[in-house]
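Reopening this one. Same input as before:
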Amino acid sequence: MKLALTLPCVLLLAAGPSFDEAKKDPSKRAAWLTEKLAKVGAIKAYFYMADEAQAKAGQDAIKAEYKADGREFFFNREIKKVLQPIEVSSVKVVPYYREGIDIGQKAKAGIVLVGDVFALESEEEALSVIEDYLAPFVKYAEEGVKIGDREVDMFVPALKNMAYTTLIKSLAQSQQVAAILGGQRKVGESFKETAVKEYLTTYRQFNVDLLKQKKIFDDNNENTLQKEIWDSLEMVKAHLASTLEKAGYVHECTDKATQDHVLKKK
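Same output, byte for byte:
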């Protein structure tokens, strides 16, 4: 199966194949993915990693990004970790942005590696991955992190280092989980449990990162840049809480030492 590596303008003159049609017929999967990913936002390319030729091309594309960053030496060591999320049912995609690309520059810089979304139980689950998780991730990466009228300065090294591991990822996952728990996205129980688990794993690490920055501020509370970092992370945390509260859930810390949390109904 051959997939377009870039996303052309999609002319909505006729509906493409349905998810069920693409699930049954591999020859229709490229058309379904291209149509859905064209609505995600500005990305450079995508690769369907369940296809052998595309998987090789996808890894080659990521290797080229490593080389552009001067990190080609680390590619073989790190690629398995990069690809791991495509095996997780509620994630299934890897939006990859190289380190040398500044966040919020509208650079159309992301490479999206797509796992086997057609192994999911329904189109709702596939759209949960693409529309509810991937789309906001790409938006934050391309347009920057803005909450209300406040913008997070992603040029600050401490925040840039957190961007794709916990900051942008937690914001995107919170939208996905809120849609599921709020009933807007109808998915299976197993998918829901996995989505909540993945979000809480990211949320735990986000809080660990936040507390590290708070300690740095406490140790030197006259540092205005450090206060900006802490304030920005507190703003993001409040936004995460608000997103889940709208779906009827709150975060409850179960272990302050590890920052483990659960989601409970209000």
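So the earlier flakiness isn't reproducible anymore. For the record, Residues 1-127 form one domain.
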